[in-house]
């Protein structure tokens, strides 16, 4: 499982209302251990998206 997949999984757990508080605490701890959103910027650079602002890209995906 890639780092990006793990980040997405942890974010999904945190936003799911059907998940227990204990699971959310564990997911938050793992997210903090991985580095939160910091690896996302490294992934954009690795994919060749240096000219794209990660915040704008993720905002566009939510729209």
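^ Assign residues to that structure.
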């Amino acid at each position: 499982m890639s780092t990006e997949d793990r980040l997405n999984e942890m974010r999904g757990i945190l936003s799911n209302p059907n998940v227990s508080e204990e699971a959310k605490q564990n997911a938050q701890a793992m997210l903090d251990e991985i580095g939160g959103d910091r690896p996302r910027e490294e992934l954009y650079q690795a994919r060749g998206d240096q000219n794209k602002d990660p915040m704008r890209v993720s905002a566009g995906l939510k729209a």
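The chain has one domain: 3-61.
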